[in-house]
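INPUT
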Amino acid sequence: QKEVEQNSGPLSVPEGAIASLNCTYSDRGSQSFFWYRQYSGKSPELIMFIYSNGDKEDGRFTAQLNKASQYVSLLIRDSQPSDSATYLCAVYGGATNKLIFGTGTLLAVQP
Amino acid sequence: GAVVSQHPSRVICKSGTSVKIECRSLDFQATTMFWYRQFPKQSLMLMATSNEGSKATYEQGVEKDKFLINHASLTLSTLTVTSAHPEDSSFYICSVGGINMNTEAFFGQGTRLTVV
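OUTPUT
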């Protein structure tokens, strides 16, 4: 079982729709959770992070964390073509005390 | 957030030669930096943790004699890929931060290494 799992996609959504990106993790002791966006050929950039169960909103982005289910998601409202990128879920803490990345989900927003 | 500068952004080298990649933390004194490698359509894989003034800590399966890391100051870490081979062709990225649950990682621009 991979430590951090994401559906590789591509996830295709029309412009203006809500994009829902999901991530599961295996280490129940994980403490913090990050979403990064990576454009092709570029390095990742942080979108947001979440530590506590529930929702955290920042502009068009909402992160949701459910530690009991070991599940974290990212919702992107009013998706724009410029949101098209690979979204990486990263998990910190637990046994490794390192930042572990998922393989990423490719999002394609269709104009 | 921290500003991290990585150089060069792209490098092509001949098989058997060595390549040095620099990672600078421009506005943050980093006692720890991280080096990742990313193959196409794969995740970032942590290669090693660079520690200022001491030896780097390598992840399992990463050859320390092939990937030499030097962290001589609080703002500079270097990764040297020695005797590079085509299978070393990859995207190498450094980061600062992310050392505990309250800090996010900030990444350099990455270096695309192609070994021919």
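end of record. DSSP finds no helices and eleven strands in chain A.
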